[in-house]
Specification:
The chain has 87 residues and is α+β, with helices and mostly antiparallel strands. Helix content is 24%, strand content 18%.
């Protein structure tokens, strides 16, 4: 699996966290993680999953499996330049 890393104008790095980047984080030193989205069971129907990208101005999507929700979440974030969460 590959990880997309976006380098911002100020030199900050943005990427979707994955255990594969732990070595990079150790090399870079102190870091801050901001939650861009959530993937949770649907509160109304626990056999579906909701990916919520509203923290970065994105949409919500409902999926039959957690794997589908996570894949959609990562694809959306990468397609939109891994935006910074709205504070």
């Amino acid at each position: 699996m590959s990880t997309t890393v976006i380098v911002g104008e100020g030199g900050e790095l943005r990427f979707v966290h994955d255990d594969a980047v732990l070595e990079l984080l150790e090399l870079l030193g102190p870091a801050r993680a901001d939650r861009a989205s959530t993937v949770e069971p649907d509160g109304e129907n626990v056999i579906t999953w909701v990916a919520d990208l509203r923290p970065v101005g994105g949409p919500r999507g409902r999926f039959m499996t957690r794997t589908q929700a996570l894949a959609w979440e990562v694809r959306w974030l990468e397609d939109h330049g891994i935006p910074t969460p709205i504070r």
